[in-house]
Amino acid sequence: MAATNASSQPAPLDQPVSTDELAAKAVNKRYEGLVMVRTKAVKGKGAWYWAYLEPVLVHNSDTGLPKAVKLRCSLCDAVFSASNPSRTASEHLKRGTCPNFSSLPKPISSLSPTGASLLPPPPGAASTPQPNDRKRSRGSSSAGAPSGTSYQVPPLTIIDPSRFDYPASAATTAAAGSPQQQHLVLSGGKDDLGALAMFEDSVKKLKSPKTSPGPALSKAQIDSALDSLADWVYESCGSVSFTSLEHPKFRAFLGQLGLPAISRREFAGARLDVKFQEARADAEARIRDAMFFQISSDGWKYRGNYAEDNHLVNLTVNLPNGSSLYRRAVFVSGSVPSNYAEEVLWETITGITGSNIRQCVGIVSDKFKAKALRTLESQNHWMVNLSCQFQGFTSLLKDFGKELPLFRTVTESCLKVASFVNNDSRVRKSFHKYQMQEHGHYGLIRVPAHIHQEANLQPVFTMFEDVFNSSRALQLVLLDESYKIVSMEDAVASEVAEMVQDTVFWNELEAAHSLVKLVKDMAQEIESERPLIGQCLPLWDELRLKIKDWCSKYHVPEGPVEKVVERRFRKNYHPAWAAAFILDPLYLIRDTSGKYLPPFKCLTPDQEKDVDKLITRLVSREEAHIALMELMKWRTEGLDPVYARAVQMKERDPITGKMRLANPQSSRLVWETYLTEFKSLGRVAVRLIFLHATSCGFSCNWSFLRWVSASARGSSRVGLDRAQKLVFLAAQAKLERRDFSSEDEKDAELFSPGNGEDDVLNEVLVDAPSAI
Fold it and tell me: What residues does the DUF7963 domain cover (predicted)?
């Protein structure tokens, strides 16, 4: 040990370290590592053979430095290389090379599942290793017993199957003919081996009660772990049920981590209350710190599958700094009258502001009931109440489906094709065959339940997509011999064949499918990007340009399509769109003189008047003329070019690759800090610029909505209170992460094709005889 200690001392800085010393350090490190492994194994946390193998250092006789690490067998004092302890144990101990090892009784847990000999092998004979000896030995606590000790347990005898009057198994019969291969046969079969191992563990615990447990977690570590677990449960909002916290496998998992069992009542009671109070206090403090805010109201237009079930209306607070805070959830069912929505919105505003109701400068809401928004706006002149742009674009799709002749024609044609293919068994079988050939999977063409007066046109668009994607398979069906036979018997088959072979049908279907995709893509981008109201006019201009190109590509007259778009635009339009577009420095245009001026030339004459009217409404009567004078100055002078370029500076998002604003809050901040000479106009500008144009926010998953419905139907005050708190915690966490999708959508995306992964599920279904 003196040599070991000397070798571990650092060499003086002025003396180079020799090669022998470096080698000695490496050997010493190897020795210390093996000693540590053996120490843990003796405590029952390592391989069984360390009870019999002991690391030793071999020193150089000339220098006294350690030169090698060996393993010494504590039973026979034989010495081996330490390069592979597992192999040494297998060759020296298991195969009978050690004269003293074979005389020790084998622990029951060393038996393999197929049975193992309990009798020691004859002297001089090598024991036959069993397949699972090594695996079971590692898990046995007997491996950690000190060398030289043995259990004082009477050896078990081989059970004679004839005692129980049932024929011996083939394995037992074969074993009986070999005196060295006797197998353990238990009355319960192989399943008894697990019970036998549990029995042996109980015997070991009684014989060695002072086994040293692993290091326990501190109270602070346990509390922190349970806090994180609670956050995950609450933020999952119904995906993780409280009952699953008491599942035996989950409790076993917690035990493996050193955590105590938890109660679902605690997680749904006291702990939930504490978490909710902390989150609510933080949100209220942030709202009080802001000068003004906007209320976002989403859920009045229920988009679920069960319109009669209870669903959530989510009320969120948008702050000027770009953050959003969840406020409350309202449980409603079916259709809601406009005056009820007005009451809920006003109660929310007064509940936040108290007597300072001017702190709320506007509302943005889905579908709703424009009447409620207009009423609140007319009663409170400082408010700007808007309808959701995402809802506006999805409503435009319904307008197209109901008003464009193209959609009626394509709907009738697709319905005829789909119904015939789905209902005729011979054609359906042929269709599935070619679907499998072309796409690797097959299924029916999805047909809407009700075509006429369909409130939700999404099923119609789904049928378009199915027929469009099955074009190649449908063409091949017509060439199949089975279809020729059907055509001779059914007149509809000939009509469908003529339709499928007509290029006009496919051109019209492609046009309708393309227009639906165009609008849906823009709507999805609006939902994810959540634009501010200054972006509304550019968004509709972008839509008009894309539709104009679509009309040109598919030779569709522009007039009827433009008429539908303009009607929907007028329903959604608000004068604040034009005012925010003019006042936001983000949209300033550089003129020939180098000035950055507001884009008045992009407005229509009516929209210019709207800007004047809105600004005068948002200020007091006394300062209305001052605000208009400042607007004229803004129109002619604009913003300093350096500040304008700083506001409009963009950088590429490293995740999405899109160009995004480098300083998203700079449009508002430049009015508050630099354009201070615009006192009246500046107050209007900072309140308009931050307003959101969409109400898209928190999305509940389906399982949570079912739970909410059950609580509401049962009229349980405690249940509804818990639901409110859970929604608040889950929604607030999602808003902090800017995650506006639901778990159901993410799971659907995971299992949808085209996600870049091998479609193993489809391969399994395809290989199955009755896949669908």
Answer: 18-102
Q: Measured between alpha carbons, how far is 324 from 326 in angstroms, rounded to an integer? A: 7
CA 363 – CA 384 distance, rounded (Å): 6
Q: DSSP 3-state assignment of 335?
A: coil
**Cα–Cα dist 735/229, whole Å:** 20
CA distance linking residue 89 with residue 750, whole number of Å: 47
Side chain identity at residue 320, one-letter code: P
Question: 167-171 — which CB contacts under 8 Å span 24+ positions?
Answer: 171/114, 171/115
Question: Per residue in 593-618, pLDDT tens?
Answer: 889 999 999 999 999 999 999 999 99
β-pair type (53-59, 293-298): unpaired
* Amino acid letter for position 438: E
| CA distance linking residue 323 with residue 695, whole number of Å | 14
Could you tell me which of 346, 362, 456 has the C-alpha nearest to residue 401? 456
Place of tokens 């604003």: 661
Closest listed residue to residue 395, CA positions, set 303, 507, 472: 303
CA 603 to each of CA 221, 536, 611, 625, 628: distance values in angstroms, whole numbers, following the listed order: 61, 13, 10, 22, 17
- Return the sign of the alpha-carbon dihedral for residues 156, 160, 164, 167: positive
Instruction: Provide the 10 A C-beta neighbour count for residue 769.
Output: 4
Residue labelled with tokens 């969409």? 694
Which stretch of DSSP H or E encloses residue 378?
helix 370-379
Question: How distant, in Å, are the alpha carbons of 29, 60, 67 from that of 4?
Answer: 10, 12, 11
Contact criterion met (CB below 8 Å) for 362 and 348: no
Residue pair 68/7 in contact by the 8 Å Cβ criterion: no
Average pLDDT of each block of 10 consecutive residues along the chain (772 residues)? Answer: 41 56 85 87 78 86 84 86 84 77 49 38 40 41 39 41 44 41 63 76 72 69 89 80 84 86 82 89 92 91 53 89 89 78 92 91 81 86 93 91 91 91 90 88 84 66 91 90 86 89 92 94 91 96 96 93 95 95 96 93 95 95 94 95 93 84 92 93 95 82 63 65 82 78 56 44 35 30
What is the DSSP annotation of 396-430?
Answer: HHHHHHHH-HHHHHHHHHHHHHHHHHHH-HHHHHH
Q: How far apart are CA 578 and CA 611, in angstroms?
A: 6
Q: Which three-class secondary structure state does DSSP give residue 318? A: strand
Nearest residue to 39 via CA among 51, 29, 25, 27: 51
Distance, CA of 388 to CA of 364 (rounded, Å) = 6
3-state helix, strand, coil in the chain (%, to 5): 60, 10, 35
Report in angstroms the alpha-carbon separations of 611 from 58, 470, 587, 596.
Answer: 92, 51, 15, 19
Q: Which of 555, 516, 560, 562 has the alpha carbon at shortest distance from 403?
A: 560
Q: How far is CA 570 from the centre of its chain?
A: 38
Residue type, 467: V
Question: By three-state DSSP, how is residue 386 classified?
Answer: strand
Per-residue HEC secondary structure of 75-128 comes to: CCCCEEECCCHHHHHHHHHHCCCCCCCCCCCCCHHHCCCCCCCCCCCCCCCCCC
How far is residue 772's CA from residue 762's CA, in Å, rounded to a whole number? 11
Q: Is the pTM of this model over 0.85?
A: no
Give the span between the Cα atoms of 391 and 562, in whole angstroms. Answer: 19
pLDDT of residue 335: 73
> 613 is written with which tokens?
């009217």
**Burial annotation 704-741 (CB, 10 A radius, 16+ → b, else e):** bbebbbebbeeeeeebbebbbbbbbbbbbbbbeeeebe
Cα(295)–Cα(624) distance, rounded to whole angstroms? Answer: 26
DSSP 150-177: ----PPPPPP-GGGGTSPPPHHHHHHHT
The first and second tokens of residue 544, run together, are: 């008009």
- Confidence at residue 232, expressed as pLDDT on a 0 to 100 scale: 87
Locate 79 and state its tokens: 């010495």
